[in-house]
Amino acid sequence: MLLDSDVLIDWYTRTARDLPWRRAGVSAWQILMSEIMLQQTPVARVEPIWREWVARWPVPSAMAAASAGEVLRAWGKLGYPRRALRLHECAQVLAAEHGDEVPGDVEVLLGLPGIGDYTARAVACFAYGQRVPVVDTNVRRVVARAVHGRGEAGNPATRDLRETAALLPTRVDRAAVFSAALMELGATVCTARTPDCTRCPLPRCAWVAAGRPRQESTRRTQKYEGTDRQARGRLLDVLRAATEPVDRLRLDLAWTRDPGQRDRALDSLLVDGLIEQTRDGRFALAGEG
Known about the structure:
By secondary structure, the chain is an all-alpha fold. Among the domains are: 28-126, Endonuclease III, domain 1; 228-285, Arc Repressor Mutant, subunit A (Orthogonal Bundle), CATH 1.10.10.10. The chain is built from 15 helices and two strands. It is globular. The protein starts with a helix and ends with a strand.
């Protein structure tokens, strides 16, 4: 069973959230920034930071001229700061090798630092209007339910791209809108825990027709409190707030509950290139030592 693209596009046109990166005049670079920020991070947290970045670094060369530390500091509390570091590296390549423009070809995009399959296709689709399947968690869930009658999408698989591509309208100018609509449906209506089927615009859904069967989910909610991620975040907080390299003691005081975990977190930040150690043994954000 295929999805009714006309119905879905009409629903999206009428009800889509007014997100700033969806508006006319937004550049491919600014859309790329939004896509990187939105990975594993809610829209409400991303929007104010994205607006700041668009004003501060409207083109790749502007970010490329900044230090990695400046970019990491501006990333703030978005989480997974390696994304910021990869985006900074990407900006340098775009400025040096692509005329300060984000390319529209998926294969070329995949060759850029920090750009994976989803991001490459999202930029090609949403920035350049190309007819390419864009598959994220929301899309996989909608397809699993509406087309296959499964409550859960299961683990990502190579067939996801093929199945989503088969749903795209033939007309290129409608395919990109359909992709955005499919994603919007999963994000706002066909959600993971509390799908609101009464608001769903689709006239047919295999999951609803089957009685909305439940499937045992193997996913577990990841805790944050007390994790290595939290320890890393605390250490980065100290360095983001500092105007010069800091002594090891200040980092030790930032995470006292488990010295071994703190040492592990510090080592991982160094290995990831997010921070660096100065010759006199102090620590700073990347590029600021």
